[in-house]
Design goal:
Chain lengths: 213, 114
């Protein structure tokens, strides 16, 4: 599958929006690896939290074009970029400027068939967490987990019965601990779909679901 | 997207009332299977109310029992092809105003409102 075209961005756009990098591409590869499963489940509603450039949701739209694509980002440049990337690649995406999925309230309760989050996972001082600028794309605070840990309590409530949740982690986030926690507290099964070493980052894409795949 | 984003208060907070709306028609490929699945995800009452308030369409108050292709095309036009480009979404409960700019609703709240 081709990678979404990003020629509508200039270098200057990447001053404000996270430029797709190794983590993004690993997530695309993992989605492609799961293309069979995704088509089988026939997802209707997809939501990417922290959609940045919009590259990932657009790619999902290439793999499975028969869904409604929503995205959220806390950074206004990113929300606009997501819409633009979708548009230029023929995938209609409706982004919302929002913190996680809070802007949707209870409307998305158990409604999301594919949920994606590539969180700011880099270990940084806690003080760097919480901006709405480009730092929000990577600054993860202690263990790179501070932003993810805020979102974790909302995941199970968003996922539909057949829903899949894709998460990007690095080894500093202690992915095995996240997987155990999600099973113990929320009853979600998980599987590491793909791993890759990129420079100092030990990346893993984990897929969570209510049923075991 | 003419459905639903809400946050903030406990009563009368959905659907948001839309004011100063500037709508935009976009072209999205119609897919019957998808629309049939999508209809189940729509809060029908709120959807009908919003579509009517914006003068987009007058849809039946309940989903018809036999949904034909023509009806799905009609829903497709409202839900997928009619976009709120500019405007304000106002909560009837707490009166909070969420601006919509260039098709993107701003649902962020001030720290005091969270």
């Amino acid at each position: 599958m081709k990678t979404p075209s990003l020629i509508h961005f200039t270098e200057k756009d990447y001053d404000h929006v996270y430029e797709p990098s190794e983590d993004t591409f690993l997530l695309l590869d993992a989605l492609e690896e799961d293309a069979g499963l995704i088509s089988e489940l026939q997802p209707t509603l997809c939501l990417e939290v922290g959609s940045g450039s919009g590259c990932v949701t657009t790619f999902l739209g290439f793999l499975w074009p028969h869904a409604y694509y929503m995205a959220s980002d806390i950074n206004p440049h990113a929300a606009a970029a997501t819409k633009k990337t979708g548009f230029h690649n023929g995938v209609p995406i409706d982004p919302v400027l929002s913190n996680f999925a809070t802007g949707f309230g209870a409307r998305l309760h158990k409604a999301v068939d594919i949920l994606i989050f590539n969180p700011p996972y880099v270990v940084t001082p806690s003080s760097e967490v919480g901006s709405s600028g480009i730092e929000a794309a990577w600054a993860g605070g202690v263990d790179g987990r501070e932003v993810l840990d805020q979102f974790i309590p909302h995941i199970e409530g968003l996922l539909s019965e057949k829903g899949l949740f894709y998460l990007v982690t690095v080894k500093e986030n202690r992915p095995l601990e996240i997987m155990a926690h999600m099973k113990e507290v929320y009853g979600l099964y998980s599987k590491v779909v793909m791993t890759r070493r990129a420079g100092i980052e030990g990346l893993a894409i984990i897929r969570f679901s209510r049923v075991e795949h | 997207m003419l459905m639903c984003h809400v946050k903030g208060c406990a009563t009368d907070n959905f659907p948001l009332r839309i004011e100063d709306a500037e709508l935009e028609q976009v072209e999205v490929e119609f897919n019957e299977d998808f629309m049939r699945r999508m209809i189940n995800k729509i809060e029908w009452g709120a959807f009908v109310q919003t579509a009517f308030a914006l003068g987009v369409d007058q849809l039946p108050a309940t989903v018809p029992e036999n949904i034909d292709t023509e009806f799905l095309q009609r829903i497709h036009r409202v839900a997928m092809e009619t976009k709120l480009k500019e405007g304000k979404m106002i909560c009837n409960g707490c009166k909070h105003v969420y601006p919509v700019t260039d098709g993107i609703p701003n649902m962020l709240l001030q720290e005091t409102e969270v």
